[in-house]
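User: Structure please.
Assistant: Input sequence and predicted structure:
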Amino acid sequence: MKYFHEQIEAKWQKYWAENQTFAAQNNSEKPKYYVLDMFPYPSGAGLHVGHPLGYIASDIVARYKRHKGFNVLHPQGYDSFGLPAEQYAIQTGQHPEKTTKENIARYREQLDKIGFSFDWSREVRTSNPDYYKWTQWIFIQLFESYYCKQADKAFPISELVKVFEAEGNANVDLVCDDGVELFTAAEWNAFSSEKQQEILLQYRLTYLAETEVNWCPALGTVLANDEIVNGVSERGGHPVIRKKMTQWSMRISAYAERLLQGLETIDWSESIKESQRNWIGKSVGASVTFQVSSSKFQVEVFTTRPDTIFGVTFMTLAPEHELVSQITTPEQKAAVEAYVEATAKRSERERMADVKTISGVFTGAYAEHPFTNEPIPIWIGDYVLAGYGTGAVMAVPCGDERDYAFANFFKGKEGMPEIKNIFNQDISEAAFAEKSGFELVNSDFLNGLDYKSGTKKAIEELEKIKGGKAKVNYRLRDAVFSRQRYWGEPFPVYYVNGMPQMIDAKHLPIILPEVEKYLPTEDGQPPLGNATHWAWDVEKLRVTSCELIDNKTVFPLELNTMPGWAGSSWYWMRYMDAHNENEFASQDALNYWENVDLYIGGSEHATGHLLYSRFWNKFLKDRGFITPEEPFKKLINQGMILGMSAFVYRFYTIPMMGKKATGNFEDVVSRSFTSNIFVSKKLADQFENETYDTDLWSKIMKILNQQIELANSNLKEKESKFTQFTNFKTIPYHVDVNLVNSSDEISLNQLQNWMPEFNNAIFIDENGIETDKIIVGREVEKMSKSKYNVVNPDDICNQYGADTLRLYEMFLGPLEQAKPWNTAGITGVSGFLKKLWRLYFDDNGLIVTNDEPTAEMYKSLHKTIKKVTEDIENFSFNTSVSQFMICVNELAQLKCNHRKILEPLAILVSPYAPHIAEELWSQLGHKGSVSTVAFPVFEEKYLVESEKEYPVSFNGKMRFTIKLPLDLTAAQIEEIVMTDERTQTQLQGRTPNKVIIVPGKIINLVG
């Protein structure tokens, strides 16, 4: 009976689906275990073999926990709103909903084929109205909430209104906008409704404000920081600029300290925790106010070094700081405006990362030192960011390297004084940035003090003159929550006299309307501006035609949509009760599942999704909707599976036209002449290292001259002819790895069929001979469709089986490490499964017996039980696969076909290779699925050694081994050894002078 993976896997996948084998129960006496994979986005490209890595690991744990008696929730769904689907819609004219559904169908087909134990009855899609209804509801709850600093939690805004009505806002300690005006109860009660709404917007946890955003003109939308890579959009590589726009924002900054402290309570990798700590960026120091000379304006700065207050040499504002335009002198206006415009074209990340470039402009304005009143020049520089701290820094060059470089770069220029040194240390070559090993000098009342005492004294004196105060600052900024896109959650918001109004929750969802075009409107409004049916009727309580807007009973709806992270910031809770129409999840379900026990996903979400989801979780806890403070107890970041890329090498030279060089290499590439010569990897290396010989060069020149003649024949008469070539180069071109054979060869015919670009190509091997097949170069890179190094899991499943794919991905290496994919290595795993199968079957069928196993068989099994149990508990899946292979080899050598060994072995294998395990369990005579059968328990007694194989040495040289019971005494061992024929042969009638025996260790005969 042979092992046919196709029939077995199809059979059991059908069985699981029909019987809902992996459906979790919300009411169970079993302990719960919630294992979750990070929300996948269903792209049109489908899955490659790198994608399932984390899913396989989580599935092993989920299946293991079921075996261990847990009620396991292991759901799956789709983060199906987002920019890629919208961009595809713009390009093709297809509705994003259509392409998203097609992509999801493709993903589902692939996921099913790999045999995951997902509870598909709980599937969610963020783009479905029955899901985003609750995303809209959460948005409303945030809008209707404020944050109390004293209680350190959020409360309903209605409670704040009562406070304002009774006592005004003078005594409240709340998170709010800067510069909120004080008012009494009488004043509040006298304010118009519109004025009250404006004030409440300054306190709400989600609010409208003019904000500096990352604007991508090509995509027509705002981008989050984590959607920008190297200063351009992650999607499409388009330029991103900074501009001010009125946007919805969320006060994640209110939760900064709780987000920081919560990291100490969860089992996450230290690297992810550190990423979040850095992003939150807690700093302890002082807020200092500088009066701008001859004006009403003040500049507030935050500094972690108030002890250096007397070292302030100049000030630097962010170019986008609101005071820049107001304090700049007429003489400096042109230079400042030009600099501000140039800075707007650089993303914040680019500015933060660029520590080498020094640039700035003097505003012409001065501030007054809070203690000495001496003038301090005010500059602008792009190394200061408006959203970090106050957007202004007091520059102390003697104690800060960046300030030191800035001061020296502009040394001698107008507005740049000599650096003041306030340390008893030399700063002639560099700033002194240490916090110890110095005394303050030239610092008035701080002279002689160190960092700690100087900081305390400086804050005390600043508070006395009301020039500053102690302050804790966070780098974390409020999250911009608007996107100028179509394919996203609509806001449940309409506008009355420009003020946002929430649509009552009972009328949700507000469904995304149809639009003719997915691009922004001609007057620059977001794509929803193209909708004809997008207004709110407050009498009929429904969405209606835009033509009916009269701003009396029919009002305009919000045109922006929510960002991609909206739906993914709470999805794990919806899985708990996925089809509840009345609540985002019932209290019973929320109380039972609580939070995620194990979360597996990529580390690229460290400061995006993981931070936002923790924020929403804490907010929902504050408002009493859930009980856990943190959403994910344990987090594992799986490493990346890398692709083995393949390259052919195109031959280039720098041509000469007549007697004049045409320019640099890049110029030549863009001209009419392009070589169609592609060379092997070895030949490319020879040109790279300039190790080619004369004969080889002659052969290539012959072919090259033919191309020169062809190129010249295509030139216009007035153009110079190509006459010479110098500076030889080869440029690597990615080619499809699936076209490369096991000898790293690719044929010309295959390339031409694959891509028309190669129709006129010429292949040259390392000997300079034209050929139809060359050796490619190989390199390990990120697996990507653009690099043509993607391996489709469907192909692996079809050829080798899903169980082989699952085992092989685990076998590649530790889960959290990056590792290269090599399809050639998969045959060993495939062979292992066939060997496992042969323990149970021969050509005639099942060969399992009820005979009592030997001690060696029990030993092999229980070694494996111990190892696999420990490995799954420690997420060391690769070593489990190795142990399975060792065990099967040992059992095959022992000719084991014993039920007491093979039944538990089938259960052991089940989490890793579930299809073959189900079939083995069924063939062994059991009904139902193996998935909930109790996991085998390790018993120590089977690993206790009863015998020892002793090396027997003569004068220190081992001559043979002998296996003896471990309970023998030294005398008994000596008696057995001395009567052994091999001993007598070695002694040849002699009597040893001494017999050294250490029971359980050595036997040595001397003399």
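The chain has a mean pLDDT of 91.
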